[in-house]
Amino acid sequence: MASDLTPSRPAVGITAPGAVSRPGWRERWLRWRNRLLADPRFQHLSAAFPLTRPLARRKARALFDLCAGFVYSQVLLACVRLRLFPLLAEGPRSVADIARHTDLSEESARRLLAAAASLGLLEAVSGDRYALGDLGAAALGTPGLDAMIEHHAILYRDLSDPLPLLIDRAARTTELQRYWAYARTPRPAHAEDGAVADYSALMAGTQPMIAQEVLAAYPRFGRHRLVMDVGGGEGAFLAAIGTAHAHLRLRLFDLPSVTARARARLAKAGLTERTEFAGGSFFDDPLPGGADLITLVRILHDHDDVRALAILKAVRRAMPADGTVLIAEPMAGTADAEPIGDAYFGFYLLAMGSGRPRRFGELKSMLAVAGFDRVRRHATRQPMLARVITARPGPRAGAGG
After folding, report:
1. Which has the closest alpha carbon to 264: 235, 232, 244?
2. Residue 294 Cα to chain centre, angstroms
3. Which of 99-103, 143-147, 296-300 is least confident?
4. Which 3-state string (H, E, C) describes 86-105?
5. Domains of the chain in sequence order
6. What is the chain's alpha carbon radius of gyration, rounded to the nearest angstrom?
């Protein structure tokens, strides 16, 4: 049974009993390189030598940024809470004017503005004024980002000492576990509206930009008849898909308290007549059948392997022979975004008490166990936000359990 629930990982370093394994060339290179980089004399020489000085400075800056990252994030939080980006949206303002609008002293305003400018959030211009920087302008145009930045205050409190979570995450109840109420409750379908309102609204605020990634990456929505979004929250993803493809029938499946919140959003989008609402838990209730496209958007990485596989098996049981499952979420091992998948989501989900980021190969193995084949990757414009995988039903064997 364990082999069904745990994606296979390649065995490394296995040798016969008593045999001595000789390190490969990469291990020998890493040992030599690390010994050299840790040598204070080499550090001094590389910082002084003109040809190596730029590299030495970049490495020193990168190491310092790791230490200072929390401070940088708090500068961003202060900008968001003081609504600096909307304030500067129409053009530069003077330090004195910004201080008046934010109820800060000029000294405090100048300190914050200089810090934000150093991070690219703002930009100093002539006349003792500040304008939006490139990152501040991007933040202003990113839906739901303000809410996510505010939300991270919870995560930072939970990670103030990460060691207890790494040693035994089950022994400690974190704020994130209480926030994501469904993650560990034994009967999620019975969660009341008050327990899901905050996280449901947070996800709804950021879901539209994920929907745009999926719409651009998956060109076959026009071939489907009925799309069921499992764990669809307040319906933001389904609203975007339904608006873009007028022929699609829509179905939202989520906890009853969540689907009640989705009705208003889909009604506002003019999609009520095309939409079915199904309340339940994908762990306790069978998924309704008939949908030839079932979407799992930022769902699987919230759950540990046993539960993630159970979700995939439930999807397989509900799917017709010509159906497709579409998975969209950030993934580990994403090129040029490795820290986002492995570090950020790895530790976010650690604090949440459930789930982990997975690589494409791991998800492909889980899909095979659940009864899917013909697994495909679809390129997204912003893979750090989400990568997209689709799969088709394979033989029914292995889909049970």
Report:
1. 235
2. 20
3. 143-147
4. HHCCCCCEEHHHHHHHHCCC
5. 40-140 (1.10.10.10), 145-393 (3.40.50.150)
6. 25
